[in-house]
Amino acid sequence: MILNNSSRSALFLLKRSSCIQSTKCGPPTYFNSTFSRSPFVSLSTKTPSAYRDSPRRVSSDTLINKTDNSNHGTTTTEQLSNRQKFKQIDPPLRLYEKLERLGFGTLRRTKRYQSVRQQKTKDKHLIPDPEYKLPLLSFFAGAKTPTSFPSESLEEIGFVGRSNVGKSSLLNSLASTTIVRTSDKPGLTQQLNFYSVGRLFSMVDMPGYGFAFVDDDQRKQWRDLMETYIGERKTLKRVYVVIDARHGLKLADIDFLKMLDMKRVKFQVVMTKCDLQVLPTLARRIMVVQDDIKGFRNAVKDVLVVSSKTGAGVNQMRKEMLFLVGHLKEKDFYQDKNKK
């Protein structure tokens, strides 16, 4: 039988429709044996269900969000990602009030934080702390070896942290100066720099640990130098461990904290660049860091939060330092801030 062109077209369409409706038809040529989809071909609604329902690659977030049928459709804590667990942290009201008082903004006017906002007392008037200022900061010694440490005359406060966390900028903000060199390049501080704060005390800027544009031998020399200073310096009152508020404590930070704890040196965590975090995220980050340092005996539980860019929290840190070295009376330090 000879078919004309119209008959051939009708027969082709009939075969095509019957193939689509049948589940016994083999897969199209752009599918492999495992039914993985070609990146160049989209699945249309006319594709057989056997291929539309084939397994596809999904992201980890999709797997985390799936509920467990054995638990009646509820998602367990183990199934949540770290980001989801972080968002579930509920900071207390007093932490929000503290951050607002230090100048880190206010809660956004959204339904999510409306319950926290309603808890605040409207007629509560807080008396701000007086402004504290440090005397003129001056560089007087640099040490690349333990033999070049200056004599122990004044009490000292050390500053240490991973490279590029804003340690040098923090020193400048505390002293209202630009004497401490800053750079975006990690590893600028390559020795122990001693700065006198008038005749009150000394601040010691240590090299950053972690990543830097130096070889491993140089980093080991810095580490040995810092460990010698921390372990043998009798005038060292406290070590401020500076971290980036956006990242919290890293493995390098934890490793350094273990060394400080082993040498029985009092240390306190200082979070910088806090202006780059919204208030709820900053409050949660503080709670995470406080939980991370619970196991260290020589850790000061209170975490300091500052912003060298806006100046928020800097005055409070100056107050802490003056009290630490004995230049602020106890009654002034523990004054009631909630006095009307």
Automatic annotation (TrEMBL):
User: For the region Disordered, what residue ranges are annotated?
Assistant: 46-81
Q: Where is the composition biased (Polar residues)?
A: 60-81
Pfam families in the record, alphabetically? MMR_HSR1
Q: Which GO terms describe its molecular function?
A: GTP binding; hydrolase activity; metal ion binding
Required co-factors = Mg(2+)
Q: Which InterPro entries match?
A: G_ENGB_dom (IPR030393), GTP-bd (IPR006073), GTP-bd_ribosome_bio_YsxC (IPR019987), P-loop_NTPase (IPR027417), Small_GTP-bd (IPR005225)
Keyword Ribonucleoprotein applies = no
In what residue span(s) does the EngB-type G domain sit? 153-327
Secreted among keywords = no
Q: Which UniProt keywords apply?
A: GTP-binding, Hydrolase, Magnesium, Metal-binding, Nucleotide-binding
Similarity comment: Belongs to the TRAFAC class TrmE-Era-EngA-EngB-Septin-like GTPase superfamily. EngB GTPase family.
User: What is this protein called in UniProt?
Assistant: p-loop containing nucleoside triphosphate hydrolase protein
Query: What lineage is on file?
Result: Eukaryota, Fungi, Fungi incertae sedis, Mucoromycota, Mucoromycotina
